[in-house]
Design brief:
This protein is α+β, with helices and mostly antiparallel strands. It folds into two domains: about 10-40; about 45-185, Nuclear Transport Factor 2, Chain: A (Roll), CATH 3.10.450.50. Helix content is about 40%, strand content about 30%. The chain has helices spanning about 10-35, 45-55, 60-70, 85-95, 160-165, 175-185, and strands at about 70-75, 80-85, 100-110, 115-125, 135-145, 155-160. A six-stranded mixed β-sheet has the order 2-1-6-5-4-3. A hairpin with a 6-residue loop joins strand 5 and strand 6. The longest helix is centred in the N-terminal third of the chain and has 27 residues, at about 10-35. It is globular and about 50 Å long. The termini are far apart.
Amino acid sequence: MYPKKNVSSFSITTFLRRFIPLSLLIFSCIPSALSSTKITLPKDREARVIKFFNSANFSNMKSLCEKFYHPKIIFDDPLGTIEGRSEMIKYYLNLYQNVVDIKFDFKDSTKNNSNSYMFSWVMYLKTKSLKSGEEIKLEGVSHLKFDPKTNLVIYHRDYFDMGAFIYEHIPLVGSLIRYIKRKLSSH
């Protein structure tokens, strides 16, 4: 038989105590470092909107919102009204915390005047909390107004069917809403 080597348990445990926390620290920083890559938004307003919504995720939301929204943004959607960029960032962070995947297919845009635009879109969303993680398709329209001095969005209003977005994907409630829709459409 081979003679036992005298391996100091002190050196192994010291190594493990030092290496494992360090490696965990290093590897835990990699995703945030990769996800915080700088995203540049185009100057062209229509391209800017498309790039913002198709680049936004939980980890880059704050920096993107600071490049896209005016500090005095007013935002309206079927969930409520938000005033101020810091509140807008909190709102998006809350919405995006369970997002697995999201993309927007912009169908059409109309320039109403030099600072006001309407965008029609289809959102494809996968989230842990709705429809058992299956993709949800939602059609909507956004009305955006840009501040002419800063080129930042100062007003944002979304129009979409809240039932199709949330309520129809909640067990029992969704069944009830679909039943009511069928009954109303048959008359």
